[in-house]
Write a structure and sequence with these properties.
This protein has 103 residues and is mainly alpha-helical. It has one domain (3-102). The chain has helices at residues 3-31, 35-61, 66-75, 81-102. Helix 1 packs antiparallel against helix 4 (81-102). The longest helix is centred in the N-terminal third of the chain and has 29 residues, at 3-31. 21% of the residues are buried.
Length: 103
């Protein structure tokens, strides 16, 4: 499995963890149930760090342009950003990398 494919999977999981805050924040602030937010927050933090590290590794390995690398980072800060990035750019890049490896 290529580094880029692993990054694609982490991008999806990181995006899901980010969206889970939409469920856990009302639980925390409206119903004073803090545990789900604590665990989702910890998982999201670790996934975010992994996403950034893998994004940087991919940028170096696949020689991404600086602007694209910045966009990859910014996608993690916007709800649904990682899903869009994965569907629009990373899937095509992964197919291109697979074609180069299989030749």
């Amino acid at each position: 499995m290529s580094l880029l494919r692993i990054f694609r999977y982490i991008a999806i999981v990181e995006g899901i963890s980010y969206l889970l805050f939409g469920v856990t924040m009302p639980l925390k602030y409206m119903y004073e149930i803090v545990e789900p937010n604590y665990y989702v927050g910890m998982a999201h933090g670790m996934l975010f760090l992994l996403y950034c590290a893998l994004g940087l590794s991919c940028a170096v390995r696949y020689k991404w342009k600086f602007g694209f690398s910045v966009m990859v980072f910014l996608a993690s800060l916007v709800p649904f950003g990682t899903f869009y990035l994965e569907a629009k750019y990373l899937r095509e890049e992964d197919a291109y990398v697979d074609n180069r490896i299989n030749k």
